[in-house]
Amino acid sequence: MKDTIRVGLDIQNEALAEKYLGLPTAVGRSTKETFEYIPSRLKGVISSWSGREASCAGREIILKSVAQAVPTYSMSCFLLPVDTCKKMRSSISIYWWGSSVDNRHMHWMSWE
């Protein structure tokens, strides 16, 4: 069926783009490498805010409205690797708690 349509419409070959709507079209065995662009994009977005001082409420709004929206579409279509989620969580918590390379802060943890 597919071949008859291809010949009838005179289509030479099929070509898939590497990405479609911002998502990879072909996901192989190594999903870790396939979705590596998400934490790096998130880190870029967060690093652009690093020079600005904001209150806790301001940082929360920025994180919820922008940073957590970056991976939302990808996460609705694919099950992301655990390592990718850890990298995203790490970038968000570093911004939230205000750590930098030369100025470290304590990251609080739940009792449970």
Question: Nutshell version of this structure?
Answer:
This protein is mostly helical.
Write down how many β-strands occur, each being a DSSP E stretch of 2 or more residues.
Answer: 2
Radius of gyration computed on alpha carbons = 20 Å
H and E order: HEEHHHHH
Helical fraction equals 40-55%
Shape: elongated
Q: Give, in spatial order, the strands making up the sheet with the most strands.
A: 1-2
- Whole-number average pLDDT? 79
Based on the model shown, name its key terms.
112 residues, mainly alpha, two-stranded antiparallel sheet, 6 helices, 4% strand
Report on the architecture of this protein.
The protein contains 6 helices and 2 strands. The chain has helices at residues 2-8, 31-34, 37-47, 56-67, 72-77, 82-97, and strands at residues 19-20, 23-24. The mean pLDDT is 79.
Topology record:
Blueprint: H1 2-8, E1 19-20, E2 23-24, H2 31-34, H3 37-47, H4 56-67, H5 72-77, H6 82-97
Antiparallel strand pairs: 1-2
